[in-house]
Amino acid sequence: MLKKELLSVLFALLALCTHAQNYPPNDAPQLEFALQLRVTLGEAFSIDNTQHGRRTVIPITGGTFEGPQLKGTIMNGGADYQLNGADGRTELEAIYCIKTDDGVYIHVRNRGIIANGKDAEGKPSFYFRCAPQFEAPSDSKYGWMNNALFLCSPDFSPGFQGIVLNVWKVK
Questions:
Q1: pTM over 0.85
Q2: Helix extents (H) in the chain
Q3: Could you tell me whether strands 150-155 and 45-50 are parallel, antiparallel, or unpaired per DSSP bridges?
Q4: d(CA 83, CA 80)
């Protein structure tokens, strides 16, 4: 019986190794829309010439959010902290809280990159993507947000005094 079990394990490992050798891989992660945040912003200020570059702080003053599984408001008091490099690259980290319509607070930490540069053909390019992390009460119906990765694509809506963030869950 032990030989039979050992052979089964070996065949399973062989199948796993064969599958792992596929290049390029054919099992790319899928994205599922999670929510849209409409973030209102206050007046930005900057600290020039720090040891890391130019630091810009943009206060988060409120807003709303909505998705298939949640809806609510963005709390006043957070901020978007940006570090601008001389090479046209900006690192950002926004830290704030949201409150669902049923009264649950969720902490958000959104890190990202803004890059102005040139593509492979030498044409100007613009890249702006973020990866928000959510901290929701584990025992709430929003606990699923603690155990997933998210990607964010910012959007600028004419007439809206802020930024629109479209967020997808990586499946």
A1: no
A2: 2-20
A3: unpaired
A4: 10
